[in-house]
Write a structure and sequence with these properties.
Elements: H1 3-29, E1 60-71, E2 74-79, E3 82-87, H2 90-96, E4 103-113, E5 119-128, E6 142-149, E7 152-162, E8 166-170, E9 174-177, E10 182-185, E11 192-197, H3 204-215, E12 221-223, H4 226-232, E13 236-243, E14 247-256, E15 259-268, H5 273-285, E16 288-289
């Protein structure tokens, strides 16, 4: 091979090496953008989303009392006795400015993720509590019920629910199943109260005896002092309680507008028991015969 051919070959190798090097650098240094970045599952990431923020937030509903504006983009609403802050836009602000302090409201909101892993409640709808959404007998959709918690009386908002032949007001922490006439806690359904409609010719002494036998499977059935009984459940004729190792059961008989009802409460031994009892009593006391 002559000298000129060797030089041409070397020159071609150098050009090829340089070309490959520039191509590699171009790919490596290319800045990653939302348009060419994948989230790891083949989906293109949404622009403008904070880490952990869902594309479609679940809409939640609630009722409470309007406390007041914090500023032009946030307000406080009292929900179950506790004031909560909600963010809002200009359209919701216009509604909020027309509300009076402590006025009953109903609202819808979503929870958005913010930096630091926290969430922020954002109102999507706000209105005065509807007085048009009523049961056939004219009961309001929401009502303020008095509750005694830790020796202090307070009022909390509850929503109307209909059972079989009656209506009652249910707090947000409860689920109510009209088919089984059962009121239970949302986070633990073992905390529950079953509502039993009694026949017109029921015999109180017979119910008392049958209840004692049934409760004895849990523990010794004892009658609650009448003063305590009427403090939490006025107009009751029977109030029995039996306590076991992990569970307390209660049996209560009360007459409402000429109709007798028996309430069977299951109260597991846990932190929730302190709130469950007074809130359950308040809901049961709110029963209206239809």
């Amino acid at each position: 091979m002559n000298k000129s051919r060797v030089m041409m070959t070397l020159f071609a190798v150098v050009l090829l090496t340089l070309s490959l090097s520039l191509t590699a650098c171009s790919k490596t240094d290319r800045p990653e953008t939302p348009a060419n970045s994948n989230s790891g599952n083949g989906q293109v990431q949404d622009e403008g989303k904070l880490p952990g923020e869902a594309a479609n937030e679940e809409t939640k509903r609630g009722t409470g009392q309007f406390v007041g504006l914090i500023d032009n983009h946030s307000a406080e609403i009292e929900v179950n006795g506790e004031a909560e802050a909600f963010q809002m836009d200009a359209s919701i602000l216009a509604v909020a400015e027309g509300l009076a302090p402590n006025e009953a409201v109903e609202f819808e909101y979503v929870e958005k993720a913010i930096e630091g892993g926290a969430t922020q409640k954002v109102l999507t709808k706000l209105a005065k509590a509807s007085q048009q959404t009523q049961a056939p007998d004219g009961l309001p959709a929401t009502k303020q019920l008095e509750v005694e918690l830790e020796g202090m009386k307070e009022k909390r908002s509850a929503n109307l629910a209909e059972g079989q032949g009656y209506a009652l007001y249910v707090f947000d922490i409860f689920n109510f199943d009209p088919q089984s006439d059962t009121l239970s806690m949302k986070h633990d359904s073992n905390y529950k109260a079953r509502i039993v409609k009694l026949p017109s010719d029921y015999n109180t002494d017979q119910l008392l005896q049958e209840a004692k036998e049934q409760l004895s499977k849990t523990g010794k059935a004892e009658e609650v002092d009448s003063e305590v009984m009427h403090r939490f459940m006025p107009d009751t004729s029977v109030f029995l309680v039996a306590t076991g190792d992990d569970l307390t059961r209660q049996y209560i008989v009360k007459e409402i507008d000429g109709q007798g009802y028996a309430f069977e409460l299951d109260i597991p031994h846990g932190e929730a028991s302190e709130g469950f009892e007074p809130l359950a009593y308040a809901s049961l006391n709110s029963i209206v015969v239809q």
